[in-house]
Amino acid sequence: MAQAMTQQGFLPSSDHEDLLSARRTLATEIEGLRALSQSLNGEFISAITVIQTMKDKGRGRLIVAGIGKSGHVARKIAATLASTATPSYYIHPGEASHGDLGMITEDDVIILLSYSGANAELSDMIGYSKRFNIPLIAMTGNPDSPLAEHADIVLLLPKIPEACPNGLAPTTSTTQMIALGDAVAVALLERSGLTADQFRVWHPGGKLGQKLRKVSDLMVKGNDLPLVSPSTLMSDALITLSEKNLGSVVVIDDAGALLGIVTDGDLKRHMGPDLLQKTVESIMTKAPHSVHAEILAAKALDVMVGSAASPITSLVVTNDKNIVVGLIRIQELLKAGLV
Fold first, then answer.
1. Which residues does the chain have with pLDDT short of 50?
2. Which of 197, 260, 272, 311 has a CA that sits 20 to 30 A from residue 205's CA?
């Protein structure tokens, strides 16, 4: 049985009450996000424009700062921005007052997070932004605060009660800040037209990095490819099949263009006493499924498992001129963690 803390000590609390508490918290924060969405206005557009202008110059960085819980949120926002092609990093306002202001240049833009907007620790960063004419964006819930007064752009958080029953622990307000930071990051991402392939540059590791790998990263290529001509006798094709050990041979013309493929299934369908005397062309599957080398490996997997007849275990990889450049197998996708 769950326990609840009161001034008198621990008292029993039912599981049902715990669920009601959790749902009240989420309902309050959902209300905060809904109000935030409805409150967005021209100030948000101005913030995106200022940051994008900085990015277009190719010199500045977006500095994100905050104190306490707002500081933790600021770190998250800076990380999200940096991973979506907006050069960004977090600076602690207290450390800024002791030398880290020197990390901020006149080419930068500053976002300061403070729900009250009245933290004394922010004053040095505010003054520095004014002194060097550095654009200052405030993310605050107090339009009359010193932060809002001195900011060039104010992203105002709607006043929705904190989910904390005492109205003290930052909950709704920090959820709004995180969501607003995400909105800034995604708006900038979409303005820049960032593609999945470009996104991969900032995410080379982990599960996400694996999903963003291209076919060219995983395919078999070069001398390891089992290539034969259409006039090759099956007796010779079987030797190539055995030597390369990839479960198929790819049939190409003199220019290297794809003509067909011979798989285990083709061998079974044409099994007979005269198989070895047949040419590859007579038993190959013409116009087999193929993919481009530069597509995401995850899309190649979709082609494999999405076959109407039966799953495909390997795909020929071609370039824009239909020249065979590789072979991608489901085994490689398994090793890469895509399956």
1. 1-8, 10-11
2. 311
d(CA 67, CA 121): 8
**Total of domains in the chain:** 2
* Average pLDDT value over all residues in the chain: 87
Beta bridge partner(s), residue 112: 65, 138
Total residues belonging to the chain = 339
The dihedral over CA atoms of 310, 316, 317, 323, expressed in degrees to the nearest 10, equals -140
Domain that holds residue 221: 215-335
Helix (H, G, I), strand (E, B) or coil at 140: strand
pLDDT at 332: 78
Tokens of 157: 């958080």
Rounded to an integer, what is the distance from CA 95 to the centroid of its chain?
31
The answer to whether 219 and 335 are in contact (CB under 8 A) is: no
The values of phi and psi at residue 143, to 5°, are -70, -15
User: What is this structure's pTM?
Assistant: 0.60
- Amino acid type, 93: P
State the residue for tokens 């039966």.
310
Q: Rounded CA gap, 90 and 278, in Å?
A: 69
217's tokens: 């990263």
Which CATH number covers residue 280? 3.10.580.10
